[in-house]
């Protein structure tokens, strides 16, 4: 298994920039796994994507993977570093799955991560630090992403929290909880 790192935190806190820094430090060929899809009618979304693209070195390969994340990770070569940005967008892309299919998708991802020889960096948004969403789909998203982040953190070598433009190594500062029951 390659090195697995999770970078989590609130929106616009610097998560992606920290992940990009770690990817460059890996000195491996970097594959940027973008879970977002372009929406030609959403100019603001397009500008966000462009901002991320401009920061990345030209030699990084970009793969657009809105759904099939496990298959993409499984195909990775050992001498590469995959930067997955972001798990929140990936979870949003899979929200139409019923609970049983989601559970299978989640288990497949977690199993795949443990088998891949490449280094992997996962960027994930922290949700649920505020008001409980007033609508079912919002609660489903928050709960699925929170559970995924917690499960993934158990198998990560390092977990970082990026907030307020500062990076905290939770693997050093914190103590992991036992694995949650589904």
UniProtKB/TrEMBL annotation:
Keywords for the protein's UniProt record, in alphabetical order: ATP-binding, Cobalamin biosynthesis, GTP-binding, Kinase, Nucleotide-binding, Nucleotidyltransferase, Transferase
Cited NCBIfam families: PRK05800.1
Gene symbol of the encoding locus: cobU
Homology family: Belongs to the CobU/CobP family.
One of the protein's GO biological processes: cobalamin biosynthetic process
Stated name of the protein: Adenosylcobinamide kinase
Residue positions of the active site: 52 (gmp-histidine intermediate)
Pathway(s) where this gene product acts: Cofactor biosynthesis; adenosylcobalamin biosynthesis; adenosylcobalamin from cob(II)yrinate a,c-diamide: step 6/7; Cofactor biosynthesis; adenosylcobalamin biosynthesis; adenosylcobalamin from cob(II)yrinate a,c-diamide: step 5/7
GTP-binding is among the record's keywords: yes
Function of the protein: Catalyzes ATP-dependent phosphorylation of adenosylcobinamide and addition of GMP to adenosylcobinamide phosphate.
Catalyzed reactions: adenosylcob(III)inamide + ATP = adenosylcob(III)inamide phosphate + ADP + H(+); adenosylcob(III)inamide + GTP = adenosylcob(III)inamide phosphate + GDP + H(+); adenosylcob(III)inamide phosphate + GTP + H(+) = adenosylcob(III)inamide-GDP + diphosphate
């Amino acid at each position: 298994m390659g090195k697995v790192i999770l970078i989590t935190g609130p929106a616009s806190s610097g998560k992606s920039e920290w992940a990009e820094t770690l990817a460059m430090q890996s000195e491996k060929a970097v594959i940027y796994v973008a879970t977002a899809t372009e929406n030609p009618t959403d100019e603001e979304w397009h500008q966000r994507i462009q901002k991320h693209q401009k920061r990345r070195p030209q030699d990084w390969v970009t793969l657009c993977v809105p759904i099939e994340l496990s298959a993409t990770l499984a195909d990775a070569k050992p001498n590469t570093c995959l930067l997955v940005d972001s798990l929140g967008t990936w979870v949003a892309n899979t929200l139409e799955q019923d609970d049983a299919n989601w559970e299978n998708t989640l288990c497949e991802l977690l199993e795949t991560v443990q088998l891949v020889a490449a280094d992997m960096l996962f960027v994930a948004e922290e949700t649920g630090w505020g008001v409980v969403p007033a609508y079912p789909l919002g609660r489903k998203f928050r709960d699925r992403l929170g559970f995924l982040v917690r499960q993934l953190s158990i198998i990560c070598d390092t977990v970082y929290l990026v907030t307020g433009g500062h990076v905290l190594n939770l693997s050093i500062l914190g103590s992991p909880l036992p694995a949650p029951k589904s």
